[in-house]
């Protein structure tokens, strides 16, 4: 509901969930507290996706596909507006730690020859989240695995080593 209408009221959210507004307020003292819980849950899922991908241990191609597939799944399950995430200091710190892990992984992918080494260093790390976001929302007919195939193919053919 918040993905469609970020300004949705607690009453509307409660009605959509099939509970009374008071039930929501017993758990969350304010709309801001509810939003904070949603963003925390989303980032918990992102952190699990990064961990499950095994970016440092798994073969690069396998880790890349796992990571992309799980992030697409997270984006679909938690389609919340992300601007607020970037403004929250606690979330920003978590995000920065995840970005460093993914950047390290993309450097590894370049060093192992999966990605081209003649592009600006930040190009792949800027492009990959955009591709995952597009696949999450513009390819709803594809499973997360199929959408990941599309993202990985696009990334590697566009940035892949010859």
Description:
- This protein has 162 residues and is mostly helical.
- 72% of the residues lie in helices and 0% in strands.
- The chain is built from 8 helices and no strands.
- The chain has helices at residues 10-17, 21-27, 31-53, 60-77, 83-87, 89-111, 123-138, 144-159.
- Helix 1 crosses helix 2 (21-27), helix 4 (60-77) crosses helix 7 and helix 7 packs antiparallel against helix 8.
- The longest helix is centred in the N-terminal third of the chain and has 23 residues, at 31-53.
Mean pLDDT: 88
Quickly give the structural class: mainly alpha
Largest sheet: none
Instruction: Please report which band the strand proportion falls in: under 5%, 5-15%, 15-25%, 25-35%, 35-45% or over 45%.
Output: under 5%
How would you sum up the global shape? elongated
Element string (H = helix, E = strand):
HHHHHHHH
Count of discrete alpha- or pi-helical segments spanning 4 or more residues? 8
List keywords for this structure.
162 residues; mainly alpha
Give the SSE map.
Elements: H1 10-17, H2 21-27, H3 31-53, H4 60-77, H5 83-87, H6 89-111, H7 123-138, H8 144-159
Helix pairs in contact: 1-2, 3-4, 3-6, 4-7, 4-8, 7-8
Structure, briefly:
With 162 residues, the protein is mostly helical. The protein contains eight helices and no strands.
